[in-house]
Specification:
Layout (H helix, E strand, L loop, with lengths): L25 H7 L14 H4 L12 H15 L12 H18 L5 H25 L3 H13 L8 H6 L2 H36 L6 H22 L4 H33 L6 H21 L6 H32 L3 H12 L4
Length: 354
């Protein structure tokens, strides 16, 4: 978004007395709005904003002129969003918040209720034009979430007077919130799916566990992945957090299907090879920890169906792992009578890991 030409005049000392609206001419109103007298852009009349404005004017100024000056003041005061795509919006939102609070408080003693309504609605519409643009530029959960967070937790509180809040276009607000939530879900689905895919790829490439980190990495990364966004969203609302966790569970279900195929391939090959005991223990431990986490966190009724399916799949992998382990052990002992002692020694060495 290009920054429009600046029409603001130099800010005067705000501690000095300011005139009321009655008796104001165009130059005085421009000074009150911190505009140059010659800067007015051509503005179309907006019936949603200036309805009843004629009766609010005691100055003799034409309605469209006052409306146009207010619109120009909003354009000149409101900070422009960063031009780069997918930029962290926090700094910009704080700047918008500061301007909105300052201007509404500064002009409240000088404007009657109808004019304050026009001023508030003008800022409201301008802010959400920016919010729509920022939402379009957002390409990640990291930059989308702060927009939704600010809209839900900060924005409406910037209009402390009930009469101003009552006259805002709240349909515009609620429509944007819904669009932002929809986009947040799409971005999160894509990101979680990608992250879980990378976890699975790394697990496939790990041929043996050389450290405790190798042994634990898969289930730790999976749990962190499905918990991160819901934990952040909890500060906005538990309902949003629950929806995000449900989305993540569905992505986890897809991961578990792929992980099951991967494990069955490894375990089937183990029948005809000499697998390390730690391979069996790692698969069993991974399933056990993910299952325990899902059972602990997914207690809401809306999560039950998907969580029970996940647990069922994990239990199938656990059972098949133990079945193959016993078959391999039986075969191993039949070939080498001394293997049983060796096996028990490995179990004792690795028991702390499982």
């Amino acid at each position: 978004m290009k920054t429009p030409p600046v029409c603001r005049r130099q800010t005067r000392d705000r501690s000095s007395p300011q005139p009321g609206l009655q008796g104001l001419d165009r130059d005085s109103l421009c000074e009150l709005l911190e505009l140059r007298p010659d800067c007015l852009s051509v503005c179309s009349r907006d019936s949603a904003l200036d309805s009843g404005l004629d009766s609010a004017l005691d100055s003799g100024l034409e309605t469209h002129l006052v409306f146009g000056l207010i619109q120009e003041s909003v354009r000149s005061h409101l900070p422009q969003p960063p031009p780069e795509q997918d930029t962290d919006p926090q700094r910009h939102l704080l700047a918008v918040q500061a301007v909105l609070q300052e201007e509404l408080n500064r002009l409240a003693p000088r404007f009657n209720p109808e004019l304050m309504r026009v001023l508030a609605q003008s800022y409201h519409r301008a802010v959400f034009r920016q919010m729509k643009e920022l939402l379009l530029q957002t390409c990640s959960f990291k930059t989308c979430f702060p927009l939704l967070d600010w809209a839900l937790t900060e924005y409406l509180s910037l209009f402390p007077r009930p009469d101003l809040l009552r006259h805002l276009d709240l349909v515009l607000y609620s429509d944007w919130v819904q669009e932002a939530q929809d986009k947040l879900f799409v971005l999160l689905k894509t990101e979680v799916s990608s992250q879980l895919g990378r976890v699975l790829d790394k697990d496939k490439q790990l041929l043996s566990c050389l450290s405790e980190e190798d042994y634990q990495e898969t289930y730790i990364c999976v749990i962190k992945c499905i918990d991160a966004a819901p934990a952040v969203a909890q500060k906005i609302s538990s309902e949003l957090s629950l929806k995000l966790f449900l989305l993540n569970l569905h992505e986890l279900l897809g991961f578990i299907h792929s992980y099951k195929s991967h494990c069955l391939e490894i375990l089937t090959k183990a029948k005809s090879s000499k697998p390390e005991l730690v391979t069996f223990l790692k698969i069993h431990k991974t399933c056990k920890e993910i299952k325990k986490h899902v059972q602990t966190k997914a207690r809401e009724e809306s999560l039950r169906t998907v969580s029970e399916t996940i647990v069922s799949l994990l239990e199938e992998i656990e059972a098949f792992t133990l079945k193959i382990l016993l078959e391999v052990l039986t075969s191993f002992i039949e070939v080498d009578v001394g293997a049983e002692e060796l096996f028990h020694g490995q179990v004792l060495a690795l028991s702390g890991r499982s």
